[in-house]
Amino acid sequence: MVTIQKYLSQNRRPFVEQLKSLVRFPSVSTQPEHRHDVLSCADWLARHFRTLGLDVKLYPTKGNPILVARTPPMRGPKVPSVLIYGHYDVQPPEPLELWKTSPFEPVERAGKLFGRGASDNKGQFFAHVKAVEAYLKTHTPLPVNVTFLIEGEEEVGSLNLMSFVKQRAKQLRADYIIVSDTSMFSKDHPTITYATRGIAALEVRVDGPSRDLHSGVFGGSVANPVMTLARLLAACVDANGHVVVPGFYDDVRPLEKWECEQFRGLPFNERAYARFLGVPSLVGEKGYTTLERRWARPTFEINGISGGYQGPGTKTIVPAWAGAKITCRLVPNQKPEAIAQLVTRHLRRVCPSSVRLTTTPGHHSHPFHESPRGRGAKAAAVALRKAFGSEPVFAREGGSLPILDVFKRHLRGEIILVGLGLPDDNWHSPNEKMDLANFHRGIAMSAELLRELGTAH
Ligand code: BES
Ligand code: MN
Fold first, then answer.
1. What is the pLDDT of residue 75?
2. CA–centroid distance for 374 within its chain
3. pLDDT of residue 169
4. Does ligand 1 come within 6 angstroms of the Cβ of 401?
5. CATH value of 198-252+298-365 in 3.40.1010.20, 3.30.70.360, 3.40.50.1100, 3.40.50.670
6. CA of 155 relative to ligand 1 center, distance in Å
């Protein structure tokens, strides 16, 4: 590992400069006007992988291209295969006025690289690319065969990747699947994540009168769609934070004892957490701790609501319609389709006949759970300990990675989630950043992990 370490320490600057180039692409998958930027980003990556000597294919899809890059095959019966997954698409940067520096002009400040996608997920998967580069450029035999699978639609639900993986399961099958698209519990707690929540998205619309009406002339005689929608939404969760949609919790697998203990052992300060989020106090489902609520309990969340007059001053109307975007986060063994149906049925049941209700299901992603006791997890613990100098912890995460469940069902290899993000990286928020110390440690960790996996077999 000496030569690899030397290579890594000598190339810290170019690695960061390359990451900056990657972050400069506004590869926002949810906004059609960025289609061209998404394609350019994929092209840049393809070229980058080629210069490192990997065999690269860019697969077009109905959406954004999927990149598959393979290291030159190492022969021998004992060489395990590793698939490394990441995504080059990013969330929209808006609201722009809250950014201290421009989201797609990455800037280094105090050891951090600021820019949309710097941490979610460009900086994280790029760390693995640089680790593989170190093997190749120093002519150190790679202990495993590596395939990178980098997609451009994670932030919009990974639908095209799902069919791609199902179709090409044989080619993509690997002994281990490494994903860095989660966070460490803290800077001092390198983390192996063994579960992520799923998601069931739903749009709801309430239509009332055929047009906005004068609220003085007609108000009081017809249902107000915004009020009706507010009631409908409020009828989904009770004052104790329990989702009251019948059947919602039926498939929830309770936390195991060791998990509750593990979570309780983590240094988590509720006050500091509330301060960090800018809320006066914390709330959530009664009977559960904050970490349990975030990681292991399902939620019903309103992501956006619209309807009626939003401009300055007053406009006295009964609005014609109101709408809401809802997502439920799901835990093992809830099924997104079933949950979307239960919520729809519940809304229909409580909706008065004075309005028309339309519901449209959105993307679905299954919750994910992997045994934290596999060989891969053990190898990850060794690699994290070496690179970060402290004892790794096991955690769940509240966010979703839609493709993980498909990997699990169709590729079978052990899935290892070793996030390089930090809790204050501002994912999906203004001023997203990647901690560069974490980036470099992540590269070293990846080099170690590949080596460990090569000997674990
Ligand atoms: N990297 C996140 C997933 C994540 C977030 C993992 C927080 C662990 C903690 C990913 O890019 C993401 O944001 N996914 C979306 C998926 C959705 C659009 C289907 C999410 O969780 O909202
Ligand atoms: Mn991500």
1. 83
2. 23
3. 98
4. yes
5. 3.30.70.360
6. 7
